[in-house]
Amino acid sequence: MDCIYKNPNAHVEDRIKDLLSRMTLKEKIGQMTQIERRVATPSNLRDFSIGSILNAGGSVPFENALSSDWADMVDGFQKAVLDSRLGIPLIYGTDAVHGNNNVYGATIFPHNVGLGATGDPDLAQRIGVATALEVRASGIHYTFAPCVAVCKDARWGRCFESYSEDTNIVRKMTSVISGLQGKPPEGYPKGYPFLAGRNNVIACAKHFVGDGGTERGINEGNTISSYDDLEKIHMAPYPDCISQGVCTVMASYSSWNGRQLHADRFLLTEVLKDKLGFKGFVISDWEGIDRLSKPHGSNYRYCISAAVNAGIDMIMVPFRFEQFLEDLTFLVESGEVKMSRIDDAVERILRVKFVAGLFEYPFSDRSLLDIVGCTLHRELAREAVRKSLVLLKNGKNPEKPFLPLDRNVKRILVAGTHADDLGYQCGGWTKTWYGLSGRITIGTTILDAVKEAVGDKTEVIFDKSPSPDTLATQDFSFAIVAAGEPTYAESAGDNSELVLPFNNNSVISTIAEKIPTLAILISGRPLFLEPHWLEKVDALVAAWLPGSEGGGIADVVFGDYDFTGRLPVSWFRRSKDSQIGNNRLAWAESVLWTNLITSSTCKSFESHVKSRRKQGSILNAPGSVPVEDALSSDWADMVDGFQKAVLDSRLGIPLIYGTDAVHGNNNVYGATIFPHNVGLGATGDPDLAQRIGIATALEIRASGIHYTFAPCVAVCKDARWGRCYESYSEDTNIVRKMTSVVSGLQGKPPEGYPKGYPFLAGRNNVIACAKHFVGDGGTERGINEGNTISSYDDLEKIHMAPYPDCISQGVCTIMASYSSWNGRKLHADRFLLTEVLKDKLRFKGFVISDWEGIDPLSEPEGSNYRYCISTAVNAGIDMVMVPFRFEQFLEDLTFLVESGEVPMSRIDDAVERILRVKFVAGLFEYPFSDRSLLDIVGCRLHRELAREAVRKSLVLLKNGKGPEKPFLPLDRNVKRILVAGTHADDLGYQCGGWTKTKYGLSGRITIGTTILDAVKDAVGDKTEVIYEKSPSLDTLATQDFSFAIVVVGEPAYAESTGYNLELVLPFNENNVISTVAEKIPTLVILISGRPLVLEPHWLEKVESLVAAWLPGSEGGGIADVVFGDYDFTGRLPVSWFRRVEQLPVNAAHNAYDPLFPLGFGLTCNEKKSLN
């Protein structure tokens, strides 16, 4: 062969040397770059020599994508990189941490804590073999597994990812690597990466090192220990992984004695690579290097230099790859990062690619598809479930065991939140990052399993929360109650209470008083077992997070197999003992009214609320819901339950429940979803905004919720910002006009109402929140949570100007920004929060932090929590969105007040402000939900209003190939119309982020009308509508289409995940548009939260182009306009750049040269700009 590197018979090291000698610096740095699939366009992959792609948890080709769909996608990416100069294949990575858990229909195995309970390394290896086959069936080469952390504190949100608190158990279970990668032959070089063949996957031991030992179990926190203890406890599993040829090791987000692991050369290079002899590559965690500067990624060049020089070889960027490539190139050319360090990193990456056989076999093996979710794998998962179960109690005395159960009794009651919920059974990292509730994949719930296990004559009654009448009137032989935690992952799972949520304690106790009861706990860690029900139940089983095969539980409780599981972690007596081995968790005795906790937490802490009854407010994180597809009535039941708990206190002070209802009550299934703010800014219609506020308030109050974290009144100065769509405009005056939404949400104050005093008109209104104070839309390079550099005059004139408008409308609350102003973090800026906002602007409501917004005031985040609290509260934060570690917050703030570091006058001021809002809102008089509002949720009137908003938001950018030949409006009575594109029939993409979950979802996620639905409704009876997402050449050639409507755009995202330096169309959409437009007259509709790059090669070909923003649930508004029932009236609320290199581009800039200027918009009737 001409090239040694292409010769499969050549020695791997010779192939590496040959290929490395041929590579340019650009190609080398490209190999070190791992990007997220949503920005992986063919041109990016090819032009930048990208070395690796990954998908975030929940980032999927489309909803319920099968392994074959994933393989299609991955093979498409691979084809793009192979068409480069050197043809270096890419590695595609995914978090397949308990089976190929992102893929619909895959086998989901128990999470690691359950496997640790089996103590069976052979089982772990067999699970690795099965997982590898299912991962490879989807075309994926690389899994970010296993986690070999030694968990020393059950409060840690990743406890379920650890096999045990016992280092020896974790070491044994590293056998999973030999399952995933195959077992190296005897004499294989130690430390050298190994992969047996095409049925195996590249594994990743993580997170190096000490992530399970952080103080108080804080995720991404600080592990304080000697090196000897670090080596003996936390590092010990890594030599076992390395001896099995593990190909990659991931660095930990956490710190060791204050030194961040992503920048620790001693541990990453001197220990891991030199001392332990690891020859594979070290990969960063997701945006792991960004955390090396504050705000995250603000000094990105420093982050890159520190991480790469420390020993990170591949960087999980995942979005801002162009900046990464540019900055690392500069660092090498300037000598700050040596070429030898780049060569070492690339050698390691290429070594893994050669060892993995990717040069010989880059594409998926479709023969493996039939093995996904096969009977053999599901039986293996069922075996794992059986062996993982730990029997904690059996009978009320040793002489009378309760288990096994009799399968032939007359009637069995099955109850509890987790008895028929496959999502809860699987836990986090299933289908999405945080997991979901409901029948989310293929599998067997505990209820399914019980029904299959019992005799033909046995009746099984399921009642999630049985009424006293059910318990009294039915003759049950026994009850099986399955209860446990909601799904979570990482920091969202950090929990200082560890009690059963969802009122499960009461359910268990009530049932066990009447019926002999087996309680089954579904959890990723030990939970507090309330003595009042622990004594009553007859048996108790810890089932961990068993995955998709609930049949394994029935196998054991009905006696087909005996219990063999052993606790992999100590089970504490009290939640204050949850730090394993140290028995300490301080409880605050004095509770102040300045804490805000999440509903997912508060569901966990309902018993705590009842016993202490001093929480001031609750919120739900996006996606944290009572049940999957919960209706407004379900939300009202939950909120009223919380309210009842706090009202039964000494003073009976009602709580405020808050939610991110930012474009309708967007967490609630069936609610009306309005266009996101950028679309409303395009309408320029403050009356419309006010009417939308009124409708939103009614739908929020119907769900029992009192408070929305809206509106965002940021002035967006850079389209790269991941929250661009939350801003009405780059023009301060437009944003100021649209603050009229506040009067819609809260009601309009009467003339003469005191300026700055909070206002709420009545029970049909909600407390609003102007956010994020101040300057969040002006950060450098549009970095979320970044730094806004400006004079005070510019800050006041550009970014602060909307706030006096909100305050004059009586806005009740204002949220501080994550961002900084000239390097000063807003959450700690007393000048802006107190002297300006409260004193100068005379704001009398309360200032609330953002989600864990005070934590970034120390490094690592939240590590010096007492300092964070002191700084934020003294700066002027009145209510703190904790949201999980509220016990520590209460204890620390109590100490700070008693020590004088936070004056009592500051506490009194904060509480006065909070109480002022509660009194103004009428919560003392009307604390509970108004059920008469339920019928208004998603009503026709509101959907018509949303449809009107869509119509008015549409901006016509092109209409015909010449001014005399307009293409729009379309003829609805033509013979045949082609509808195409990723976004034509996807309600999730149409709604965008902050819909159902924080980052949004793809698919038919709620009730509404897609653009395809709307087109079908709009056309004449004789018109045929053909839908094909990506039409084949055969379709285009053989069908006689009058015209095509191609709907494309961005995937759903929110906040930092939306930060994007490229702003190009994903999903191969440019090619789809170009191919269709070459054959058929084409209208392109862009669904996006901001301007995107419009490729000239298709922009010239298409007849018309419409910017539809993120229109929400009512796609009918688009059909109304494109078919001519209404004309276009929308104007660009942001300047549309020609090239990303122009960014930021604003109308106020001297060198203003946009593709379409601020205020641009054509009409069908006039064929000219409205500008």
Automatic annotation (TrEMBL):
It holds the Pfam family Glyco_hydro_3. It comes from the Eukaryota. It comes from Xanthoceras sorbifolium. PANTHER family: BETA-D-GLUCAN EXOHYDROLASE-LIKE PROTEIN-RELATED (PTHR30620:SF33), PERIPLASMIC BETA-GLUCOSIDASE-RELATED (PTHR30620). Keywords: Glycosidase, Hydrolase. SUPFAM superfamilies: (Trans)glycosidases, Beta-D-glucan exohydrolase, C-terminal domain. Belongs to the glycosyl hydrolase 3 family. The keyword Hydrolase applies. Residues 24-352, 633-917 form the Glycoside hydrolase family 3 N-terminal domain. This is Beta-glucosidase. Residues 389-579, 954-1163 form the Glycoside hydrolase family 3 C-terminal domain.
